[in-house]
C-alpha cells in the first residue's frame, strides 16, 4: 500500500514524539532522521547513570543480572559484553518470510525515537550507529513469526539489534540481501559492541506493532474516503436516492464520522444526471433503498470514529518511552510493565473488525449491481450479451472470497494469550499477530473497494444516455477504460489495475479534483 502524499526530507527525533506522518515519511518514502541537540545531552546524561550502576554491589536488572526468568542470576563485569550479545543473538529467533521493508523501517524509527528520549540508558555512539544504519537504507531481515507482543516485539527488534552488531542478514538500499557486516562496512558504519543495559534498550518495545498501526492509519484515512466515493457511485448507478444523506437527518444522530461520510456522499451525487432522472416521486415508486446503500454513512462513519480512537492510541504510544528497566526523569532506574502491548493490540484488532464490516457492505453493493431483480433495469451481471457473456459475475466471487477472509481476520488476536519464559511472562498481548493480520486486512479492503468501483462505473456507463455527476465522470476517466461495458475480456488485469489506482490514492484524487476535498 502506498499513499498519495510523498513526504521527503528528514525527520528530527528527540524534540517531541514523532507523528504518524513522520512514520510514513521514513518507513515508506525513505526520509532520513536527525537527532536533536537536546536529545544528545539527555542520552549522555542517562548513560552516565547506567555506568555508575554497573559498578554497584547491588544487582540491577539488565545491567548486572540475567533476563526474564534468569533475572536473579548475577553476571560479573567480565561477562557483561557477552551477556548483551547473547541476549540479542538468542532473541533474534524469528521464523518465516521476511516482513515488508516499510514495517522494519517503521520499527527502527520508533526504537530510535525511544532511545533518543534518554530514558533507556543507551550510549550515544550506539544510538548514532542505529541512526546511520537506518539512514543508509540498511534494512535487517525480520521474520514474520517470533513476537508475542510482550515484552514488546522482542524478536523483530532483536534482528535489528543483531544487524547493528554486524551479524545476521540485511537488505541494502538496492534490495540486495547481504551479511550485515558487509553492509555496515560499505556504509562506513562500525559494528557496535554492546555494553551494560544496551541489549534490553534495543529490543524492549512495541515498535513493530505500533509501526504497522501507524501505516494502517495512514492507509485507512485514504481508503475510508475512497469507500465513500465507491458507495456514492453505487447509489448513483443503482438509481438510489441521496435524500437520506441530508445534513439535517445526519444531525439527528450526531456521530462525527457519520456526518463526514454523508457529506462525502452528497458530493459524489451532486449534479448527477442519473440521480436527477428519478427525482419525481410520482414516477419513482421506490420508497427506500436497501441498507447497503441507505446506511453506508452509518457504517463507514462508525469506521471513521473507530479510526479516530485508534489514532489517539497510536499518538499516545508514539509519545511513550517503552523500555524495562527505564531511567526516570529524576535519575532512578526502575522496572515496569510499559512494554506490554495491550493498548496497541486492542487498537489493531478494532481496525480489523471495522475493515471487515466496511468491506462486507461494499461487496453487497457489488452483488446488487449484478442481480437483474435488484439492479433497477441493468442487464444480469452487467454482461454485454447475457448467457454468452458472464460480465462481472466472477469479480463478485473474488470480492466475496476476500470478505470471507476479512471476517476470519477480524477474530481478535488480543483475546488470546500464551505463557512464556518459565511463567515469568505469563500474559502476553499477541499484538504482533494482530499487526500482521491487520496488514492483510488493509490489502483486502483495497481489493474489495476496487471491485465495487469497477462494477459501479460499468453500471453507470450502462445508464447512458443518462450522465453521471462530475465525480463519477472523473473516476471513470481515471480508470481509463477499466470497467467499460462490452464483451467479456481477461478480467484479472483490469481488477489489479483498479486495485493499484485505489491503493495509490488515484481514485480519491480524481474525486477531489472534481468536487473539492473529501473528509
Query: Termini, distance in Å?
Result: 20 Å
Identify the CATH architecture of the largest domain.
Answer: Up-down Bundle
Sketch the major β-sheet: 3 strands, antiparallel
Spans of at least 5 consecutive residues with low confidence: 2-7
What is the class of the largest domain in the CATH system? Mainly Alpha
Percent helix: 40-55%
Strand percentage lies at 5-15%
The number of helical elements comes to: 20
User: What would CATH call the homologous superfamily of the largest domain?
Assistant: Fumarase/aspartase (Central domain)
Q: How many structural domains?
A: 2
Give the averaged pLDDT, no decimals. Answer: 93
Organism: Dermacoccus barathri
Main location: cytoplasm
Keywords: Histidine metabolism, Lyase
EC number: 4.3.1.3
Quick recap:
The protein is mainly α and 519 residues long.
Which key terms come to mind for this protein?
mainly alpha; Fumarase C, Chain B, domain 1; 20 helices; 54% helix; 5% strand; disordered N terminus; Histidine ammonia-lyase; lyase
Describe this structure in words.
With 519 residues, the chain is mainly α. It folds into 2 domains: 10-205, Fumarase C, Chain B, domain 1 (Orthogonal Bundle), CATH 1.10.275; 213-322 and 355-515, Fumarase C, Chain A, domain 2, CATH 1.20.200. The protein contains 20 helices and 9 strands. It has helices spanning 20-29, 37-54, 80-91, 101-115, 124-135, 154-164, 180-186, 198-203, 207-237, 247-251, 256-269, 273-276, 291-294, 296-318, 342-370, 393-409, 431-461, 470-479, 492-503, 506-515, and strands at residues 10-13, 32-35, 95-98, 139-140, 143-145, 169-171, 177-179, 326-327, 333-334. The protein has a 3-stranded antiparallel sheet. The chain has a two-stranded parallel sheet with strand order 1-2. It has a two-stranded antiparallel sheet with strand order 3-5. A hairpin with a 5-residue loop joins strand 6 and strand 7 (177-179). The chain is elongated and about 90 Å long. The model is unreliable at 2-7 (pLDDT under 50).
Amino acid at each position: 500500500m502506498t499513499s498519495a502524499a510523498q513526504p521527503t526530507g528528514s525527520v528530527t527525533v528527540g524534540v517531541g514524539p514523532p507523528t504518524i506522518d513522520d512514520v510514513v515519511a521514513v518507513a515508506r518514502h525513505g526520509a532520513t532522521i536527525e537527532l536533536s541537540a537536546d536529545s544528545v545531552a539527555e542520552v549522555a546524561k542517562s548513560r552516565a547513570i547506567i555506568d555508575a550502576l554497573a559498578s554497584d554491589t547491588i544487582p540491577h536488572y539488565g545491567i548486572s543480572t540475567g533476563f526474564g526468568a534468569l533475572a536473579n542470576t548475577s553476571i560479573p563485569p567480565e561477562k557483561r559484553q557477552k551477556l548483551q550479545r547473547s541476549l540479542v543473538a538468542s532473541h533474534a529467533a524469528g521464523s518465516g518470510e521476511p516482513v515488508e521493508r516499510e514495517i522494519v523501517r517503521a520499527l527502527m524509527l520508533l526504537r530510535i525515537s525511544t532511545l533518543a528520549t534518554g530514558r533507556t540508558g543507551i550510549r550515544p555512539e550506539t544510538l548514532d550507529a542505529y541512526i546511520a544504519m537506518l539512514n543508509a537504507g540498511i534494512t535487517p531481515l525480520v521474520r514474520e513469526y517470533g513476537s508475542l507482543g510482550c515484552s514488546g516485539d522482542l524478536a523483530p527488534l532483536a534482528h535489528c539489534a543483531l544487524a547493528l552488531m554486524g551479524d545476521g542478514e540485511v537488505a541494502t538500499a538496492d534490495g540486495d540481501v547481504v551479511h550485515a557486516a558487509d553492509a555496515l562496512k560499505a556504509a562506513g558504519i562500525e559494528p557496535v559492541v554492546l555494553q551494560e543495559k544496551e541489549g534490553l534498550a534495543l529490543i524492549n518495545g512495541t515498535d513493530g506493532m505500533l509501526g504497522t498501526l501507524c501505516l494502517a492509519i495512514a492507509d485507512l484515512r485514504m481508503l475510508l474516503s475512497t469507500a465513500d466515493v465507491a458507495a456514492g457511485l453505487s447509489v448513483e448507478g443503482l438509481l438510489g436516492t441521496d435524500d437520506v444523506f441530508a445534513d439535517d437527518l445526519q444531525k439527528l444522530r450526531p456521530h462525527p464520522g457519520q456526518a463526514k461520510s454523508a457529506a462525502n456522499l452528497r458530493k459524489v451525487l451532486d449534479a448527477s444526471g442519473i440521480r436527477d432522472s428519478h427525482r419525481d416521486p410520482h414516477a419513482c415508486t421506490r420508497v427506500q433503498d436497501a441498507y447497503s446503500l441507505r446506511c453506508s454513512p452509518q457504517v463507514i462513519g462508525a469506521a471513521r470514529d473507530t479510526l479516530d480512537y485508534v489514532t489517539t492510541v497510536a499518538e499516545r504510544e508514539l509519545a511513550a518511552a517503552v523500555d524495562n528497566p527505564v531511567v526516570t526523569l529524576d535519575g532512578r532506574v526502575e522496572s515496569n510493565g510499559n512494554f506490554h502491548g495491550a493498548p496497541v493490540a486492542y487498537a489493531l484488532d478494532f481496525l480489523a473488525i471495522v475493515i471487515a464490516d466496511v468491506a462486507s457492505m461494499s461487496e453487497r453493493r457489488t452483488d446488487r449491481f449484478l442481480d437483474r431483480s435488484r439492479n433497477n433495469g441493468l442487464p444480469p451481471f452487467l454482461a454485454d450479451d447475457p448467457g454468452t457473456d458472464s460480465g462481472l459475475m466472477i469479480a463478485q466471487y473474488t470480492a466475496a472470497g476476500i470478505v470471507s477472509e476479512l471476517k476470519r481476520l477480524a477474530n481478535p488476536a488480543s483475546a488470546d494469550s500464551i505463557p512464556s519464559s518459565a511463567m515469568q511472562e505469563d500474559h502476553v498481548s499477541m499484538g504482533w499477530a494482530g499487526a500482521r493480520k491487520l496488514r492483510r486486512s488493509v490489502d483486502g479492503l483495497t481489493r474489495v473497494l476496487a471491485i465495487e468501483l469497477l462494477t459501479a462505473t460499468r453500471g453507470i456507463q450502462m445508464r447512458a444516455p443518462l450522465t453521471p455527476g462530475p465525480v463519477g465522470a472523473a473516476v471513470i476517466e481515471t480508470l481509463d477504460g477499466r470497467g467499460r461495458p462490452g464483451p467479456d475480456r481477461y478480467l484479472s488485469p483490469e481488477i489489479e489495475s483498479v486495485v493499484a489506482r485505489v491503493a495509490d490514492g488515484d481514485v480519491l484524487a480524481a474525486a477531489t479534483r472534481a468536487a473539492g476535498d473529501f473528509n
